Amino acid sequence: MTKETPSLTVELADSPSVKTIGVLHVINGEHYAGAERVQDLLAEELPRCGFHAGFACLKPGEFPVRRHASQAPLYAVPMRHRGDFRAARRVAEIVRREGYRLIHAHTVRGAMIGRLAARRAEVPWIYHVHSPAARNSASSWRNRVNNLVERISLRGASRLIAVSGSLREQMICEGFDPQRITVVHNGVPPLYEIPPRSKPRGVWTLGAVALFRPRKGIEVLLEALGLLRYRGYGFHLRAVGQFETPAYERKIRTQAEHLGLADCITWTGFTGDVLSELLEMDLFVLPSLYGEGLPMVVLEAMAAGVPVVAADVEGVPEAIRNRQDGLLVRPGDAYDLAQAVAAVIDGQVDWLQLRENALHRQKIHFSDRSMSEGVAAVYRQVLKI
Question: What is the pLDDT of residues 160-218, one digit of tens each?
């Protein structure tokens, strides 16, 4: 992978060239999902706030290929295994050579390497809390290990950025100083030209977008769809995204067949154009069981004017106000999920009003601009500028 050299002078579309300060983001990079979307958007927007980003990629995979912010330098620093601490030395060398003044880590692995690299390079570092490490997978032992590594690594962080108030409270419960934790909500670009739509009629297109894995609750969604079909509702599900493993994909496809749903589901696989998929949907469904911070795809659905039915987990209620901007349901409850979808289809909840409220709320509170400005404010506090 070719290393690109960062520039301290950045051309902006709506302003003259400006001097910017370099921040090296230490990321995993094997997937391109919600957290990676945050990293990508920050690289695009931070120059407007006086900073430019580079990426040190510890597990190069989908991110280097899928990212949009191609102007941001990317350095492949592959780790052979979790304990390959030589990566910290290489990251520190990049920081010193290219003049980065701050390290910004985004994962438990990134925190471990970022802390050691920051010490070597004698620069401060911060950590972005995207999801709860103690509840990030279906493996209890992996969660315990990740949580322990995260707690040890974060002792040296200057500041923590939590993507939701609920994550901030969890970090405080873990023993971290509240004064060191800043909430910066995730954000996505608002859409200023959205095709006008009327309430759907007939067969509704339901949608789900995710890196499909056990905590995303696709099994619950399938059970809910089985209930809806039994009641005579017409729908088609577009499931957008790849599966975490082939074994999990086989399990889910088998469940869909057993429930008699195979003919009303389209599994699209990964797409780099999530917006186009969202604009095909009448209702977006997020059935997550746990492990969310503030899901980017919920914000993208709001920006596209697609009403959301989502599980009431972690930071989701900070974006979706129940029956105002979308509907919230009990996690893991297929019956409650089916009832909520039926309420929208039947008109018990106004689909058009949900759409208008969500569009307005996303533009005001959850834009990519507000996210980058919040992150830049943390940078300035740490760097004392």
Answer: 999 999 999 999 998 899 999 999 999 999 987 777 888 888 899 999 998 899 989 99
Instruction: Look at residue 240 and give its three-state secondary structure.
Output: strand
Residue 1: what pLDDT?
38
Q: Which two tokens stand for residue 1?
A: 């992978």
pTM score of the predicted model: 0.85
- Token pair of 256, please? 């869909």
Q: How far is CA 301 from CA 46, 54, 279, in A?
A: 23, 28, 9
Distance (Å, whole) CA 23 – CA 26: 10
Distances (CA, A) of 295 to 6, 44, 178, 209, 244: 30, 19, 23, 11, 17
Question: Which residues, 6+ apart, have CB-to-CB distance to 143 below 8 Å?
Answer: 133, 134, 135, 136, 137
**Who contacts 29 (Cβ-Cβ below 8 Å, separation ≥6)?**
36, 55, 57, 58, 59, 60, 61, 62, 63, 64
Phi/psi of residue 273, nearest 5 degrees: -120, 70
Q: Which CATH architecture has domain 9-187+367-383?
A: 3-Layer(aba) Sandwich (3.40)
CATH code of the domain occupying 204-365: 3.40.50.2000
CA distance 58 to 56: 6
Rounded to 5, what percent of the chain is helix, strand, coil? 45, 20, 35
DSSP string, 258-271: HTT-GGGEEEEE--
- The strand order across the sheet containing 283-286 reads 265-269, 235-240, 204-209, 283-286, 308-311, 326-329
| Positive or negative torsion for Cα 355, 359, 360, 365 | positive
- How many whole angstroms separate alpha carbon 366 and alpha carbon 368? 7
Residues forming beta bridges with residue 162, ordered by sequence position: 129, 183
Q: Are 331 and 289 in contact (CB under 8 A)?
A: yes
pLDDT in tens, 186-198: 999 998 777 788 8
Indicate where the chain has its CATH 3.40.50.2000 domain(s). Answer: 9-187+367-383, 204-365
Q: Across 46-158, where does the E strand assignment appear? A: 51-57, 74-76, 102-105, 125-129
Per DSSP, 367 falls in state B
How does pLDDT run across 356-371, given as a tens digit for each residue? 999 999 999 999 999 9
